[in-house]
Backbone:
């Protein structure tokens, strides 16, 4: 079975500061990893994904994540937070592209002016 | 990117009634769709996998007779909450698997449907 752990249910950052959201996974097979963002009362928007190849993945809105197999991690970062980054972020894992996703508990990001 | 719609976006119903939620892939064909449930301030939990032309596969603990899923076409899956009760109030989100676009295999999520059962 696969699982995802997101450390920190809430993260507060100042506008312009680094955003770091932590995600660790468990998978018996090489994983496909995803980060999604959810704004209030909306569905999920894909930020980025790792399938194979380059371990540093760049996504939309200035976000990037690095797949570290040895640490079973896929942390999400953004160098400079914007007010519009305030949202809920979910890390997810699957064993193959297009298969059902297992989500982490989510991290709510608050951006302070 | 590919678009997935859900209808309705909000629904309020009385206890004991049934509610149908539609999930449509607007610009691609989806042989597989997924239904998730999200309680307030919680993560998404997969309810079932819907495959076009066949029975849905339900996750453990999900009542198949209560949450009826029909995937009658390559662009439409429906979730019917039968005899709804207040504990069924939740945010229901679908996703559709696009296996053809540009050779990639990606899930696209709908905007969600908020169900409130009085």
Residues:
């Amino acid at each position: 079975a696969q699982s995802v752990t997101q450390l920190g249910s809430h993260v507060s950052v100042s506008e312009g500061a680094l955003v770091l959201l932590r995600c660790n996974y468990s998978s018996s097979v090489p994983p496909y990893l995803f980060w999604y963002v959810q704004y209030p009362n909306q569905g999920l928007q894909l930020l980025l994904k790792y399938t194979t190849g380059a371990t540093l993945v760049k996504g939309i809105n200035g976000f990037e994540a690095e797949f570290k197999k040895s640490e079973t991690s896929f942390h999400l970062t953004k160098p400079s937070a914007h007010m519009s980054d305030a949202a809920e972020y979910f890390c997810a894992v699957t064993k193959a592209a297009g298969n059902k996703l297992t989500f982490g508990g989510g991290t709510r990001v608050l951006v302070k002016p | 990117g590919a678009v997935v719609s859900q209808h309705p976006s909000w629904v309020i119903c009385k206890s004991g009634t049934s509610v149908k939620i539609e999930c449509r892939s607007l610009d691609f064909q989806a042989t597989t769709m997924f239904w998730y449930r999200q309680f307030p301030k919680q993560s998404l939990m997969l309810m079932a996998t819907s495959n076009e032309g066949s029975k849905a596969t339900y996750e453990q603990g999900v009542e198949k007779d209560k949450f009826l899923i029909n995937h009658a076409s390559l662009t439409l899956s429906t979730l019917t909450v039968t005899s709804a009760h207040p504990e069924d109030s939740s945010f229901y989100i679908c996703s559709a698997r696009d296996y053809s676009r540009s050779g990639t295999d990606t899930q696209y999520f709908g905007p969600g449907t908020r169900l409130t059962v009085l």
Remarks:
- The radius of gyration of chain B is 14 Å.
- The mean pLDDT of chain B is 91.
